[in-house]
Amino acid sequence: MKTALITGATSGIGKATAELFATQGFRLIVCGRRSAVLDKLKDELSKQIEVISLVFDQREFNQIETALNSLPGEWKNIDVLVNNAGNAHGLDTVENGSIEDWDAMMDGNVKGILYVSKLIIPGMKQRKSGHIVNISSVAARQTYVNGVVYCASKRAVDVISEGLRLELTEFGIKVTNIQPGLVETDFSKVRFKGDEDRAKSVYTGYKALEAKDIADAISYCVNAPSHVAISDLTIYPSAQSEPRTVYKSLEN
After folding, report:
1. Stretch 27-39: mean pLDDT, rounded?
2. Which entry of 115, 144, 150, 236 is annotated as an active-site residue?
3. What single-letter DSSP state applies at residue 118?
4. DSSP letter, residue 8
5. Three-state SS for 123?
6. CB atoms < 10 A from the CB of 62, how many?
7. What local confidence, expressed as pLDDT, does residue 200 receive?
């Protein structure tokens, strides 16, 4: 039985991936900052599979280290790491940007992936097997107005994925970088500081991707034959042609 650790499992892509992996027989370590939400998810998924929940803020290395060290011995052999947790805050020019927002994005989207990966890679190398899936964004492919810092953070994810692949392939460890386009989750609600009307407008007039669509893609990559390694995967809704262009007349 394989063990998968998923960050940002309390909602969106992370939660959908945990739910799908549970049906496929993975033992799960679901991680996030909201303990009550994690407990509820754990209770639901425990009906199908063994589940452990870990509460930590992935911007804080000491919290991650303490949480991972708390795992029972038989749970420390993590076969699949899904680095899903991340965030977007604000849509401002650099001149008007919030330092707090910048720190949240760079610490969560970039340093968080490095922190979690740093602690899990040694075990994978020792066993000469494993799979790391990093959730990037199409924002890494094309910078857009008022999204400089977010786009930079996601381009960094692409670079981290490429670097990990160069470092780890010889040890039998696969690394997959996934770039989703517009996915209807709480992403925009967070970006717009809880402004639900503004967030909802991002997804109106066309059919956005759903969290389960990205979970399906992650599952395909993780369950591919041992000789197959999906390095990079870009996924758009059919109405989106590139990061900045969505044809809202294309209702599905």
Report:
1. 95
2. 150
3. H
4. S
5. helix
6. 10
7. 83
Question: pLDDT of 175-200, one tens digit each?
Answer: 999 999 999 987 776 776 777 777 78
Q: Is 234 helix (H, G, I), strand (E, B) or coil?
A: strand
Q: How far apart are the C-alpha atoms of 124 and 118, rounded to whole Å?
A: 11
Q: Quote the mean pLDDT of the chain.
A: 94
Q: Are 14 and 33 in contact (CB under 8 A)?
A: no
Q: How far is CA 159 from CA 9, 100, 202, in A?
A: 23, 24, 28
SS3 193: coil
Domain ranges of the chain: 3-246
Buried residues in 70-85 as b, exposed as e (16+ CB within 10 A)? ebeeebebbbbbbbbb
For the record, the structure tokens of 96 come out as: 């008007």
**Would you call 150 a catalytic residue per the annotation?**
yes
The CATH architecture annotation of domain 3-246 reads 3-Layer(aba) Sandwich (3.40)
Q: Which of 81-95, 98-112, 170-184, 186-200 has the lowest mean pLDDT?
A: 186-200
C-alpha 115/C-alpha 101 separation (Å) is 20
**Which tens digit of pLDDT belongs to each residue from 57-81?**
999 999 999 999 999 999 999 999 9
Average pLDDT over residues 36-56: 96
* Alpha-helical segments (H) within the chain: 12-23, 35-45, 61-69, 99-106, 112-127, 148-168, 187-191, 196-201, 211-222
